[in-house]
Design a protein that fits this description.
The chain is an all-alpha fold. It has helices at 2-5, 8-19, 22-39, 43-62.
Amino acid sequence: MIATFKSNTYVNDHFYRQRRTEKQKKTMITVFIYYNALRSKSFTDALYKSIAYMQTRLKLVAGK
């Protein structure tokens, strides 16, 4: 019942996020790593930052 009260845009956005292709996800991750590499001193540092960020994101998605 609660789901029916949520706005239509929220539902559409949620389903769009689920429908993202693997290629899109990989591109996003690559861009994110390059973005971190530009901001940090070393590439390994950027990788660690990106991995840490993705782990927190995954935890949020999993609901833990």
